[in-house]
Amino acid sequence: MHVTLFFWNLSFTPSYYKLFLLFLLHIHYHNKRTTAMVGSKNQEIKYISDELQTIFLANLDEAPARRRAREAFKDIQLAIDHCLFRLPSDGVKTKEVYEVNSRGIKIFSKSWLPENSPLKAIICYCHGYADTCTFYFEGVARKLASSGYGVFALDYPGFGLSDGLHGYIPSFENLVNDVIEHFSKIKEQKKYQDVPSFLLGESMGGAIALNIHFKQPTEWNGAALIAPLCKFAEDMIPHWLVKQILIGVAKVLPKTKLVPQKEEVKDNIFRDLNKRKLAPYNVLLYKDKPRLGTALELLKATQELEQRLEEVSLPLLIMHGEADIITDPSASKALYEKAKVKDKKLCLYKDAFHTLLEGEPDETIFHVLGDIISWLDEHSSRKNTYQAP
Where is the Serine aminopeptidase S33 domain (predicted)? Predict the structure, then answer.
């Protein structure tokens, strides 16, 4: 779901490297010793057994540990008092699959399909940074499926239940290609070839969805983007010297959890205080400091995306909280203004934070869900009418 703090891609001066390398190596060593506790020590889940508490606090860098955590907590997660999990889920068929992709990475994916109604369209979901498709999105997907849509999602390499070092993106382009490969296999199935297909991207997933569109400009009937990561908010950017140092060190220690984070960030993701207390139940969420290589890849991706907004040519629904300090709402406005497609809609939600579908008051969450479904209903009836300009 959700981005923390990254930095601009500025040139790195070798003299800075010589001056600070020993200091950064010391921090790297310290991080390795304390990584199991970073991010989790300020959060807790009350009233669970010692065994579950041990699993919750465990180092989740590797996929087997994340899979154990999910298995231990999945029933507890679905029982929490969150409006997404109070939605009816009757008539929805779900399926979970592990498959090895063309790069040899075991990928977890899940689908939600309506059992008792005709299929209007398929929706392919791209989750945000640090997140998984197995927690909050479970409630969103059930709502979409009960509205007549087939929903498909995967955990990216390094996130959720898929293989890979937790929170590590060595190549954003490879990540986009992995997602394209997975969704293309779904769309090629005969039973889905005659229905429209849409991308749904949240935060970093919005940037992934747009990059999928650039690589497949006529393959999709539209995209709904929730707080898309087209640009980091200015308040998320550290001092220029820190940026230069981190960029240089990322070339040597890309997996290191070293990117600084502002304390106020965690309080500006979930606006609803009760929902903020439930956030620790997302046990697969990457909670540590961002890895240097990941931060650099996302920074480059946003800079490139900013330069290509005019190329966006598929029908768009853009949604953003006006009080979002994680991804910049002004970038969503720029996307709306610059995208060459005429069929586009921008929804700004007053006082809303970053997590429009997870951390807002119930009425805002249902408002956003309603906007998505209304837009999908309108556009799924336009099968085969969309052509890229």
Answer: 119-361
Using one digit for the tens of pLDDT, what is the confidence trace for 89-109? 889 999 999 999 999 999 999
- Averaged over 313-321, what is the pLDDT? 99
330 catalytic residue (yes or no): no
Tell me whether residue 370 is in a domain: yes
Of 271, 270, 288, the closest CA to residue 279 belongs to 270
**Does residue 4 lie within any of the structural domains?**
no
The mean pLDDT of the chain is 88
Catalytic site includes residue 374? no
Q: Is residue 386 included in any domain, yes or no? A: no
Domain count, the chain: 1
Which one of 40, 203, 313, 332 is the catalytic residue?
A: 203
Task: Report the CATH number that the domain containing residue 136 is assigned in CATH.
Answer: 3.40.50.1820
* 142 sits in which H/E element: helix 136-146
In a domain, residue 104? The reply is yes
Active site residue 117: no
Residue in 131, 163, 178, 324 annotated catalytic: 324
Query: What's the pTM?
Result: 0.88
Q: 191 pLDDT band (50/70/90 cuts)?
A: very high
| SS3 track for 90-147 | CCEEEEEEEEECCCCCEEEEEEEEECCCCCCEEEEEECCCCCCCCCHHHHHHHHHHHC
Active site residue: 320, 354, 379, 380, which one? 354
Q: Which domain holds residue 336?
A: 14-380
